[in-house]
Batch of 4 targets.
Target 1
Amino acid sequence: MSFIECRNVSYSYLQYNDTNNDEYVDVFKDLSLCIKKGSFNAVIGKNASGKSTLARLINAIILPENGEVIVNGLSTNNKDNLWDIRKTVGMVFQNPDSQIISSIVEEDIAFGPENLGLPSDEIRKRVEDALKFTDMQKYRNADTYSLSGGQKQKIAIAGILAMKPDCIVLDEPTAMLEPKGRKQIIEYIKRLNEEEKITIVLITHFMEEAAMADNIIVFGNGEVISETPKNILTNKKRLEKLGLDTTQMVKLKDLLCENGINLKNDIFNVDEMVLALSKFEFENKNNVFENKLVENKNKNIIELKNVSFYYGINTEFENKAVDNVSFNIKEGEFFGIIGHTGSGKSTILQLFNGLLRSYSGKVIIDGIEITDKISTNELCKIAGLVFQYPENQIFEKTVYDEIAFGVRNILSDESEIKKRVEKACLYTGIDAKIMNKSPFCLSGGQKRRVSIASILAMNPKIIILDEPAAGLDPLGKKEIMDNIKMLNEKLGITVIIVSHNIEDIIEYTQRVLVMNNGKLAALGNVREVFKDTKMLEVSGILLPDVSKLMRKLNNIGIRMPENVYTVEDAFEVISKSLKR
């Protein structure tokens, strides 16, 4: 039985620029699809392929230009149906700031149930259940605007869950969450679907999340594909043509097959791979995966010495975000910071360039100790920060003016400013064709490039990025991360990133800092830090599937090194150990 149906739906956006040649860009043309009642559907596709537009059409936030969207028998084209449709379909937005309206967490979650006219006892029960399921009980009385991006996302989800709609549409709800928090949210959504029979529409770029669905809807190349997860995710070549990714196990399976190891084509999770490999013979030897990292012997460019920072100090909302933390970062290093939501990562980034000032201890940047006497403007020339949400730092009319803004505050020669802008665009891959467009009309990936370029144009020694690839499709993420790596390697810029994507941390960073509840939990190169699985679990960090594979193979007597974190590494150790 169809619960949601799109019948020949068309929709377009007006794209603005400053040349008076504004044009409409089609997102959908004659889109038709059905979503069954009680089903769990994952929606995947490149950025700007129409995923968020579909979410807003289902919730009747926007209406189709042509065609019809029907939700539980009600057409969104009939304005008399809109209240009932919006009660039926709960929407969790990509950016939680778009959804949070109250200054107190508990009140924000209660807002929806209150508007449904529920009794007070029922509202309290629903708020309590939502707090528990999102693991946010201890923040019930916290100021919503002092929460981290990931914590805000949990509150936005809790607010929808408390309303108990028949259908929940979630637009990248876990993009800002740490792996453990992401897993908890997806497992709860799965339970809502299975136990409460709530229809789920989950927009995601995480293929492991998509694999948990009953059905996957793929947007790409002007077509819509709707199939089972196994049919979609095991076809790596088709996904690559659509600019998408697949699971680590599918990638590993393909590598092994390409090198003469005959495996079933439909393997796409760890247990299936363990079962398949258990049928082969392996050399019984204690493999060791060598750490190939070259030590950085450059001088310290950032030093933190016994640094602490509080939010809401001396109030009932007091929160010690950073607690007596000490570490250093080397010049020219690519440095990663990880940890659970609210662990203090973003706070530390803002201490680096003086947006926040420590309450105790010393923060030293390029030999300068940050004190109240040092201006933020001076520090920004040394360390530039790209925020978690790039739209928070975009405000100019055109892309060119946005990138040039910072430079114009330190230079007056327009020809030199132009050179800097062009150089920044070259290194960040920004097409000259968009320079006169409004930055607000760009896709998420393009906005991030513009934000990075606006910092790069100021020639900083340090670039600091808070979740630089969150919410991007796999191709966009790789392009952004490769550009950042190039800035580090070719220009010698010190790069610091906060990321919840462990695969990015493993692939790109040289050292990693793990934060847990405001304290430093671990510091060192990735392979050494990630050996401590108990510490990682407590800190909300889950290892990649290839690491789980190595441990499960060991459990069945196939000796494998456990410090394996990438598909390429897993392929190397497995292929070397197989008896041929």
Note: The chain has three domains: 2-241, 248-291+543-577, 334-354+371-538.
Target 2
Amino acid sequence: MRGIRPFLRDAWRLAKPYYTSDERWSAWGLLIAILALRLLLVGMTVVLSFWNREFFNSLQNKDFAAFFELLFVYRRTPSGFMPGFCEIAAVYILVAVYFTYLSQWLQIRWRRWLTVRLLGEWLADRAYYRISLTTDRAAIGTDNPDQRIAEDIRDYVDNTLTLGISLLANIVTLVSFLGILWSLSGTIELFGIPVPGYMVWVALLYAIVGTWLTHLVGRPLAALRFRQQRVEADFRYSLVRVRENMEGIALYSGEAEEKGFLDHRFGAVIGNWWAIMQRTKLLNALTAGYEQVAVVFPFIVAAPRFFSGEIPLGGLTQTAGAFGRVQDALSWFISRYPDLAQWHAIVERLTTFHRAVVAARAAFGTGLTVADAGERSVAMRDATIELPNGMKLLENTDLVLEPGESVVISGRSGSGKSTLFRALAGIWPFGHGRVQRPVERCLFLPQRPYIPLGTLRHVVTYPYPATAFSREEVAQALEDAGLGQFVSRLDHDEHWAQQLSGGEQQRLALARALLIKPDWLFLDEATASLDPEAESELYRTLKAKLPDTTLVSIAHRPSVAAFHEKHLVLERADGRPGHFVQAELAAANGGGR
């Protein structure tokens, strides 16, 4: 566990932006209202302390009139006016209801703002993509971003408000009841020395010993909670992967392998949970014993004054109640230790994730820079493209693609064709150099198309809204791409990634190109799942429907070369940087990916 000051500093850095944002007035207004209601609840416990004294005194004195009035009527007592229990309870219920309501209101507003902010930062400057390329993601705090955004933010907001308000309320409770307990304790002599307010000192000593023992026993819980969140998310992610790849697993008959892997992931969940159980058992044994002793401890300490007649029964119960309140306030750390351990883990996870996102955004543009130079051509100047491990795929390379001259690029498997595709798109962060292209008029289609959630119409028009194109335009694009059978289902919201085969998904991606009509269309084996005849048919459709579009294809089939005017081969051997060689179209034999 890190030091308390760095941890609190991180917790404050997560909270501060919301309370200084454009929502700061509503945020502070709700927070102040919540604090006021919580302090009002503390004040009512003070009132109940005095009511409790009068009530038990009425029982001791067998005073039925006072007993009845204390239950129902606002009355005058020797110590002043005292509301009846029903009146106190009615106000208490009203305050408690609105305290919870306003707390939940602030929680959802804060969570919404923080989620939108972190989502925006994660998606901005392709930070999500850059950190996904890092090999040791768990070490830098970027594992399972879905959990960190969806669950950790929710729990951070909830725990921060709950613990913060609880701490403040306990401080006020301590101050409120400290004076009461001091006045009720009287003075005793210890070794001939008078000790005023002795029960205050007893409560303080009791809480100090309990806090020290609790921290000693419960300290490892924070690290265990941190790890539990990670292994739970890893297991959940593995289940999602099975759901997303059901057909492939079924075709390979890989159920046994998948079960073994899932058992291994779930074993990590169980193993860490057992460690939490063992540590929690020790902590609960300590805290339960501490709390049980605290029930009778004040009566034992105050009993001599009661039996000697110094205080009546009501005074005894008020003394015990005040002692309990002071002891509870001083023992806040003990009772909240598991929550504090979980909060510590959540703050650590959010902080490390946010730092990774900030670092990824700060590094944006350190790879190949993409600029819209106002030229129609696509040029790569003095480009060095590397793998994340530093291996160079290309070094100080120039490449110029002219508009109207379609190019097919081939090469052996592992030569770096797909990485070149990503570099031209401007998403590959490893390397340096410049890419000049008409940024707004280029469309890149990878081998595995992205199929978003939503209606089929939205899937086809992605990344544009479904309303960006008319229904007739979308239907025509599907017809041209050979997906006419799906036109009647344009408004169906289904899991299209599972509904469509690999070939149909590639046809759908080409339907996007037919709809968007870019000036440049880059295809990274975007028809590899189709048979040669269907592939040729689609390339003829692209040529016919997009006569002003320049095609740049990464492909391995010789038939693809027939639809291009230029053929480049990316040659690379023995781990050395590669280079481009122009080949004759008639001799184009492609190559493996």
Note: Residues 255-307 form the longest helix (53 residues).
Target 3
Amino acid sequence: MIDFSIYDKKALPIGVDNFEKVVSSSTPSYYYVDKSMLIYEILQDGAAVHLIPRPRRFGKSLNLDMLHQFLALDTRRDLFRGLQISRHEDFCRRHQGQYPVLHLDWKDVCGEDYDEACYMLAYELQDAAAHMAFLRESRNLDTAALAQYDAVLHLDEMPQEKEDEEARFQAALQAAPLVLTQLLEKHYHRKVVVLIDEYDTPLSDAYPSGYYSEMVSLMRGIYSKLLKDNDSLAFAILTGCLPLPEASLFTGLNNLKVWTGKSDFTGAYFGFTEDEIKAMLAYYQLPELLDIMRDWFDGFQFGGGRVYCPWDVISFVDQGRRSGPGAPAMYWVNTSGNDIVQRLLSRADRGAQRDYIALMAGKSVWKTISRELTIRDLDSKGLDGIWSMMVAAGYLSVRSEEDDGLSELSATNREIRWLLSRSLQEWLCNKCGAKSDDMTAFSLALKRGDPNAAETALHAILSDLFPAHTASRGGKHRVDFDQRLLLGLLLPNWMARAEVQSGEDCVDVCFRVSDGRGIVIAVRDAGEKRDLNPVCDEALEQIQENRYAEALQAQGCVSVLCYGIAFQKAKCNVKLQRRGR
């Protein structure tokens, strides 16, 4: 039977970035977490150009549209009635509905090659111009100004066959946003606010497709003309994911203020605070979800405080109100690919593998993080560039920093640890030839307490892994192959709960499974000539000496399965000892 009581409450705005639609009283009526004081904070700051970088799905587009709806000349004042910003009456009189607004969204400015990306950029600019059809009737625009408007409106019709024609087309693309602000100022006799969403998407998509340099040059020209010495500009706000602007992208732009989120006021305006989540859960009568959300989704840090990804929160609350409390899904990590993580795995040396496993298990690692990051750093700065990009993208959080530049990093939350484990499985399958069926069989055999089946499945996996790895490493075997990677064979939801201790030739893993049992695995490298059986015994002795089973029993595990696993290249041996209360 359908529970119609859920329709007595407001809907949750999953994937809705239109501010007017979210806050209006029309059907459906959406639950809105009030972020309107962001408007006050930004305008009172007074900077000419603001750049606010945050990870994906953190409400950037909705907040930018809120700013648009507040500032634009055709504002609907009723949309802000009852919101916090409405309490500042003098501020609202001075700023609400007082500006022409040019709102650009670069999320679709991409393509398989540079020409296709330019076409998509031209389309976005033409679309912006099409929404200004009123300019054709303006008494304040002369014939030359109207010709400029028509040129933007028909960018895709410019010839590009010859070299000089292509140069004119590129120049027209670079000038188009500036031209639109100039036309708006002439028409309204007011300075123009420029809002640009996903400012960095054209670059991040160009890099893997091989036309990064051309796109940097194009976008540098756009931003230089639009944001530097533009007399028609009131102020501009840009949002994206990169933590700091590309050094070469904003060359000469000395009026740019970057809200990194490290200590600035914008922290609580992008993401949900715990108080905001408590209010939401009280409204939907689901207070029991808070502890689950803390376990899975807490950990993002901006503005000196901890916030939750809005996409995770509203998705889980919506799931809870429809089907009751249950296990969360992988909401945030499933909204895009994991290219950065795969890039790390493909380049990881022995130390990076060890760090990756530590992060996957909830531990911290110390790295040198670059705050002035460019997309090129993924290659030019090696692993340091990748670690830095993972911080920027939200996969890793900075827990503390030292004066020497080192930062303590950890996986942001349990959802991210799950992603790291899944990514490791995918990498082992795609790059090293491991079969997912063998991985599943290995994990299930461990859970059932069947060491023989586990050994059979693991031997099959190793038979695939070692030849592929040896071929990729020029004939080298165990020196380059770190057994820590084999922890990726465990089910991702197990690894999210794991505790890992590791040394030069050993790895110990402890975790609880859902039926009240615990599992301890001690992994040992047997070297070139040693017998595997005594090495397994040594691993089991180490489990006993470190009292891993007792630790799990103290956490409520009735029984514990203790495995000693020894490796010798593609050979393996698995032994089991059962511990009970």
Note: Residues 470-483 have pLDDT under 50 and may be disordered.
Target 4
Amino acid sequence: MEKFLVCQFEAVSIQEYIMASTKLKEMVGASQLLEALTTTVLDKVLSALSLKEIQADENLSLSKLSATNIVFPRRAGGVFLMVMHNNDAAQNFVQLWPLLVQQFAPGLKFSFATERDEEIKPAIGKVRNLLNAQKNTPKATLPELTPVTHRSPTTGGAAVSVETSNNQSMSVDQPTRVKNISQNKVVFPNVMNKWLPDNETDRFPKVFEHTQKSESKEYFPFSTKEGEHTIAIVHADGNGVGQYIRTFFEKLEAVNDEVFIKAYSAFSQGMDNATQKAAQSAMAWLIMEHPEGALPIRPLILSGDDVTCILRSDCAFEFMKRLVKAFEEESKIELDKLSAIDKNARSVFPDYLTMTTGMVFMRSNQPFHMGYHLAESLCSHSKDLGRKARQTSEGIIPSTLSFVHSTSSLFDNAEDYIATELTVCSTKNGTKGIKLSQEVYLLGKEVEGLKEEIVPFTALQDLVDVMDENNLNISFLRQLATTLQLDPAHGQRMISRWIEINSEHGSQAIDALNEVLKQHFGLDNVHALTTQNNPLSDLIAYQGLTQKGSYND
């Protein structure tokens, strides 16, 4: 007889679901829906079916698992893996949950798979395979769109009601309507509290309108500089976690179900703990910098090893530097806890885990969904470069950052953006391209023994500092970047003239700049900016976005 039933649920394309709207309140509503789905809503469903959760800790005993007990080896925002006895209550849950998700979070794509077996580990393996297969299977959405269906002008979905905001009426689809309802904190608890350190109150903005002047804490606090409303869309993701989990399953093949569940639960909860504590550490700095009013951040996703948020441009680099550093430290603490459960479980993972970040700086009135897709692509691009740089397949992938400042067009793909916006031709026939971007920077701990050196992000601050200390005007570099797009040969003449002007009182200033370019970027001198890949665009963006920003340890 099949004793156990294993269920796994996973929300798919959650960033797409959240970024479907350009309105901040709807993005916030979507993130609250997702968080509540596998917390408060799941708890209420289990209670209605008289099912009781027990913890997968050192006291777990599957032999004493009653017919109404359930255990979660994994339970995080938008995802859960559940083990229970194969009985009527379990069958009722299987029938109820998909229907409830469609009602509670309409428009959300998800996968839900179940498997029954005498043993738990084989069932978990099978259900994971079923879940992966489902991700490639399109599902019908309701209400069905027909030629005569009235559509929402903002999303294109079938309109179900008319809502009024700022004295303007607009047709909305069902997902948007529900996202707006989720602003009611009586129904939905404030799930953003997990970003906050202890004893801090929610000061996250809920209105994202740069055209309206307001001192209210509801409004996103853009820069006080007139016309400045640049924000950073940030997506960060743990490195190699998927592969580590696959190896984890292989390594623990011989252990019993109890040990397996304890180890898997400890790892899953550990990732949540590490990411949450890292976010809180970065938030502590941001709160100290902004003791009053709305905070210049809007958290959207904090789950497992995923982080997505919107930050004011001048805060973004420092915030993510602190978050990544804290994640590396906290992940080691959490991974070391596995040793008490099973030594093989700890041996799967490196000394600590790392995180890759993609950032897109853009104006707040540009399309959020395109900005997010580009940030996600930059994150993937940075991961690829990080994987190529590590010493061996088992070595630590360094924590890296890729970023762009989009002042005009947005692309969905990082490679396309770099090729189109950050690459210039150095020859008349266009056979050779010079990238005005380093593409990837080291954001976390320095990793020894890399196949390829990755430039530390602090190198950009070093470039800004050496120009400031020697009174070298950075506006020249902006002119040079523009010139290189049109005539690289003229760029060489511009550099020669600039060096001549700045050497009238000695060559120390140019020598200092050349030293930084050589030490960090492998460029012999300033002239190499027209003949070799270089960080010219990164430097201009960094200096402008941070207004000389702070990047101190």
Note: Residues 257-289 form the longest helix (33 residues).
